[in-house]
Amino acid sequence: MSICFRFSPLLLLFLLLCLSAAKAELKTPRLGISFPPVSNARARAVTIRHLKRLNCKLVRIDAPWRLREPRPGKYNWKPFDARVKALRNIGVDIMVTLSADGPDWVSGKRSKNGRAVFKDAEAWRRFVTAFVSRYSKHIHKLQFANEWDSLGYWFPGTAQELVHLHNIFYEASKAIAPELPIVLGGVTRSYPMLRLYTENSDRLDFSKMKLKEPNKITKKLKKGRHQLARLKARVEHVFANARYDECDIHLYDDCENWSHCVEVIRTLTSRPIIVSEFGGPSSNYEVYSEAYHAKRMSAYLQVISKLPITEAYYFNLVENPTTYHDRSGLLTRWLREKPAYGVLRTFLKESGKN
Fold it and tell me: Fewer CB atoms inside 10 A, N or C side of the chain?
């Protein structure tokens, strides 16, 4: 006896749409570079040379308000124009982060690293309007603030103050460029990692990392548990009340736990997720060598390519001793290509995601 199943055209269409959606969810994210050197012509020449060599067409750069409007209504666009033009000339899509780094004339409370709460909301609205009016046709995405969850370091204000400024930023941007994606500033792994450690520490895996001290990371997590309630309230308030099209998380070092971190963020929002910073190793926790860096780079890329995200930006192109991840650069400070550079170049070539 043979059994024949008959499908109506509508049912077939529905099944094809489901299959298409499933495939879209599994797409490898586009890969880019976060904060490559672009501050002057020489730095841009280095960055452009290596973006071409890597076949990388996605970059994240910052635009501090204090440098673009040092005096009320007196804009200094020329340096940023040069950066945007140089990158666009080689076909790069640019995501811009407007850091919470306002000029003195508008800044109230400041953090230790100079980030501020803006005391004149209308001045902020005017600046965002001017910025988006000038650059919206030349940039890929826009976000405000960076690692605002870090309890006062990158944004010294309350969650309510951040939401207020972010929503002004969102409304002013959309009034000029409705189609420009607005990304909620990147959160660190602090909240998801502390939640995971508190709720089920057995899910966390640090066994693949070459650690200087075997228990140093778990000791830090244990010590930080007292901050979880405060951090949870801050993060959840912002995710629930800020207006945004996409959200952003930074993922470093322990790539074996990145999927769990993304799962935690997914409990807060249904919006698309990007990763505007990923990479490592950490000089604080891991025993560094260029060979180990290359090995871990391969692991980072394998994990990041399978996450349910749309974009990921590696940090950083050139070693920078002033940053927390001072050894994660693909190039040494003397611009020599490290083995990890070759790993990323091969991956981009083979995956075709650039």
Answer: N
Burial 298-323 (b: 16+ CB within 10 A, else e): bebbebbbebebebbbbbbbbbbeee
CA distance 117 to 164: 10
Q: Name the band, by pLDDT with cuts 50, 70 and 90, for residue 6.
A: very low
Check if the beta carbon of residue 334 is closer than 8 Å to that of residue 285. Answer: no
Q: What is the enclosing helix (H) or strand (E) of 167?
A: helix 159-176
**Who wins on pLDDT, 354 or 52?**
52
Using CA atoms, how far residue 91 sits from 52, 55, 87, 97, 141, in Å, is 10, 10, 7, 19, 15
Rounded CA-CA distance 331/336 in Å is: 5
Of 137, 91, 69, 55, nearest in space to 351 by CA:
55
3-class state of residue 233 by DSSP: helix
Task: Indicate whether 26 pLDDT > 80.
Answer: no
Cβ neighbours for 77, distance < 8 A, ≥ 6 positions apart: 68, 134
| Portion of the chain with pLDDT greater than 90, in percent | 85
